[in-house]
Amino acid sequence: MNVNKELCMLCQTCAAVCPTQNIEVTEADIIISECNDCGICARACPLGALYE
User: Residue ranges of the chain with pLDDT lower than 50?
Assistant: First the structure.
């Protein structure tokens, strides 16, 4: 999964819905590790900042 950092507002919605809990949102960045490309986070993102 990729992140459009210009759109991402670090709202943490993606981290909350990730079934593998591999998304970390800090004050300055979003870190996605070991993504299985299920797309749940992309569908949940209110700003469309996540994409494959």
Answer: none
User: What does 1-29 look like in DSSP terms, one character per residue?
Assistant: -EE-TTT-----HHHHH-TT--EEE-SS-
Query: Residues 6 or more apart from 43 whose CB is under 8 A from it?
Result: none
Q: Report how far apart, in Å, the C-alpha atoms of 48 and of each of 13, 41 are.
A: 11, 10
- pTM check: above 0.85: yes
Burial of 14 (0-12, 13-18, 19+ CB in 10 A): buried
Listed by start position, the domains of the chain span 2-51
- 2-51: CATH class: alpha beta
Contact 28, 39 (CB under 8 A): no
